[in-house]
Amino acid sequence: MSEHHEYHDPANVTNPEHAEHHIVTPLQYSFVFLTLLVFTGVTVGAAYVELGVLNPIIALAIASFKAVVVILFFMHVKYQSRLIKITVGAGFFTFLALVTMTLLDYISRAWGLW
Amino acid sequence: MHEDHHEVLPQHLHHFATEEQQRETGTFGMWLFLLTEIMFFGGLFFAYLLFRNWYYDAFVAASNQLSIPLGAFNTVMLISSGFCMAVGVWAAEVRKQSLLVIMLILTTFFGLVFIGVKYVEYKEKWELHHIPGAHFDVSQFENPAAYGLKEKPLAPDMAEKTQVFFFLYFAMTGMHALHMIIGVGLLVWLILRARRGAFSSGYVAPIENFGLYWHFVDIVWLFLFPLLYLINRHPLH
Questions:
Q1: CA distance B108 to B118
Q2: Do A24 and B17 touch (CB under 8 A)?
Q3: So where are chain A's domains?
Q4: Residues of B in contact with A32 (CB under 8 A)
Q5: B19-230 is classed in which CATH architecture?
Q6: Best label site of A63, B3, B63, B149, fewest CB within 10 Å?
Q7: Virtual CA dihedral for A90, A94, A95, A101, nearest 10 degrees?
Q8: Which of A42, A74, A80, A93 has the most B C-beta neighbours within 10 Å, making it the best mutation to test the interface with B?
Q9: What is the pLDDT of residues B154-197, one digit of tens each?
Q10: pTM, full prediction
Q11: Looking at residue B236, what is its pLDDT?
Q12: Which residues of chain B have pLDDT under 70?
């Protein structure tokens, strides 16, 4: 155990990136739960209103908002270290970059048909 | 300050400097796995985006065959399941063994209801011959009035393209349901271990990391529901 004392670092000096472990309370989870239910209702309601091109945009915006809420609170990313935050952000960014590039390829190959 | 003895828990492996580092390493690894899952489902989402642009009328007609009430009900089931899972993680953190077990059981219950509703939806598609392949029936899309549907009739070539929608519908919801079934299997294993007190003495990593998986599966559905059920509706229906 003596080796262990060398590593023990209560002031978090050697690795300041480590976030303090944070416990989210059930009350906070209840607010998240309520938010998700409300926005599920909103997105279902919006589907029955004719909004043209805005229908898919609103539906995806609400879905993205719900996903961010789940990621930040249910998945604790809000309380994680920067390493985890950047990892998660990089994953979604890479996905969007790949979608954009593939879509550009399809659109430019059938120019005028879209 | 040499006497401030660091509490070493039995799960703390010696190659990690601190308990926090060990925890973060596990979280990091779990997220890397989830990023591969984003790419996996992402391919299907991209296919949906592309084919919806190509065969828009077929996607509208086919999408209107899905039941919004069932889809919305299942969304609520999944959100409830995710909420119970989140409270379960909290229960493990504060070492409440019986609450953890109850929450894991509720998580499983809502997950099973979701899969049950999915079965009902699939069965209806089977009976209508709306499963892509040799027995696919386009008549509802070519002549909707004969079936009492207020839908625009599709030309035969476009009506065939409804198979593309249903192929993606079954591929996406099927892969999602497979993830749910795997999740329920893992939940049963976690419940058995939680009942023996495996996660109520400070060792919460399996619960936390399973929680990340379960919430990820939730998020996939949060996008599947609007894309497959909602965005092609029009108020006439």
A1: 15
A2: no
A3: 22-79, 81-114
A4: 83, 86
A5: Up-down Bundle (1.20)
A6: B3
A7: 160
A8: A74
A9: 999 999 999 999 999 999 999 999 999 999 999 999 999 999 99
A10: 0.89
A11: 52
A12: 1-10, 234-237
Of A9, A88, A92, the CB nearest to B18: A9
- Token pair of B235 as six digits: 């108020």
pLDDT tens track, chain A, 114 positions: 444 444 555 544 444 444 567 788 899 999 999 999 999 999 999 998 888 889 999 999 999 999 999 999 999 999 999 999 999 999 999 999 999 999 999 888 877 765
pLDDT for B174 equals: 97
Token output for B198: 């495996």
B235:A49 CB<8 A:
yes
Looking at residue B149, its pLDDT comes to: 84
Nearest to B53 among A8, A74, A114 (CB): A114
Q: Domain segments of chain B: what residues?
A: 19-230
A-B contacts at Cβ under 8 angstroms: 150
Residue to test with chain B: of A6, A8, A13, most B Cβ within 10 A: A8
Residue B49's closest chain A neighbor by CA? A103
CB atoms A84 and B24 under 8 Å: yes
- pLDDT the model gives residue B71: 96
Alpha-carbon distance A43 to nearest alpha carbon in chain B (angstroms): 8
Q: In this complex, do B72 and A40 lie within 8 Å of one another by their Cβ atoms?
A: yes
Alpha helix positions (H), chain A = 2-7, 26-47, 54-69, 82-109
- Classify residue A70 by its DSSP letter: I
Distance from C-alpha of B2 to C-alpha of A46, rounded to nearest angstrom: 62
The reported pLDDT for the residue numbered B232 is 81
CB B2 within 8 A of CB A5: yes
Q: Which of B118, B113, B63 is closest to B231 using CA atoms?
A: B63
Least Cα separation, residue A75 to chain B (angstroms): 6
